[in-house]
Every structure is written in C-alpha cells, then in structure tokens.
Amino acid sequence: MKHRELNNQEIKCIKNTLSNYLNKEDIEGFDFENLYLLHDNDKYNVIYSTDEVLRHLKFFKNIHGAGILFGDFGKNKNKIKFSMSLEGMDLISKNIVKNHAIINKKGETLFLYGRDIFKSSILKLNGTGRIGIFNKDKEFLGIGNYNKGDIIKNIIDKGWYLRKGG
C-alpha cells in the first residue's frame, strides 16, 4: 500500500468530523502532523503514528501500516467523508464533550457483548448520530448510533476484539 501526508482538504474533512465531538481548542491542539494516509485502490485509511515512526516511513514505498487506524475516507454522493475508527475515537475520548452517552453497569456489560443500549441503561445522553459510548467512570467503550428513539445501536465496541479473535 502507498502512503503519503494528508492534504489540506483531507485535514479539513477530519477537523469537521472532530468538531462533532471536541471543542475548538482541542481540535486546534490535536497533532494532525502525526496522521498519514495509507491507500490502495479505493481504500483510504488514516493512520495515527509517532514522530519517530513517521520519520522512518520515508525510507519505504509500500507498507501495510505503522500506527493505529484513526479512521477512513469514503465517498458519499461524490463528496469525501471521514469516519472515525474505534481506535481513533478512543484516542480522542478523554476530550469528547459532544455527541456521547454515559451508560450504567448493566448497559456496559451488554454493550461490550455487542448488544444495543436501551433507554433504561442510559445515564446521560448528549447529541445524535454517531456517538461515543462511556461507562459511568468515563471510560470509552465504543461507538453507537442514536436517532432520537429508545435505543442506541451498537456500531462497534471494545469487546469486538475478543469476539472476533483479534
């Protein structure tokens, strides 16, 4: 797979997605220089890595990855769209102030087993669409989708790694 630095349009798209979760100061303080694009055909992954690893990448033409998957680009009606990965959301989770839910212990257990979250398990809810899911101790659990109903749909959770044998 080929790799390159992100261009201004891609960084702007990532900032737009981050604005759904973070305040302006945290977006401005984010290390965008630690991100790079890994691409092959129609697959465009954004990888977060350390400065040291990024310095060494220039010596390689084709790599499969060096860092954590921060998210990926896709097209939606001829417009590029950035989607956060589980690891990317975990990376920013300490600063998430918008579009998140805090759930009780029972909801946490069920969510980590891949289940959806019912209204009775929600302690606090802020926002709609793709939201970060946290336990009552503000530990990041995964990503859900909420559309003003009685259920937060599980998109991906940290228990996924164990269930899939990863």
Write the layout of secondary structure elements.
Elements: E1 2-5, H1 8-18, H2 24-28, E2 35-40, E3 43-48, H3 51-57, E4 68-76, E5 79-84, H4 86-92, E6 100-103, H5 105-112, E7 117-118, E8 122-126, E9 129-135, E10 140-146, E11 151-157, H6 160-163
Parallel strand pairs: 6-9
Antiparallel strand pairs: 1-2, 2-3, 3-4, 4-5, 6-8, 7-11, 9-10, 10-11
Spatial separation of the terminal alpha carbons: 22 Å
Strand content: 35-45%
Helix and strand pattern = EHHEEHEEHEHEEEEEH
List low-pLDDT spans: none
Order of the strands making up the biggest sheet: 7-11-10-9-6-8
Using the alpha-carbon principal axes, give the shape: globular
Counting structural domains, the number is 2
Total DSSP helices: 6
CATH topology of the largest domain: Nuclear Transport Factor 2, Chain: A
Indicate the mean pLDDT.
92
State Rg: 17 Å
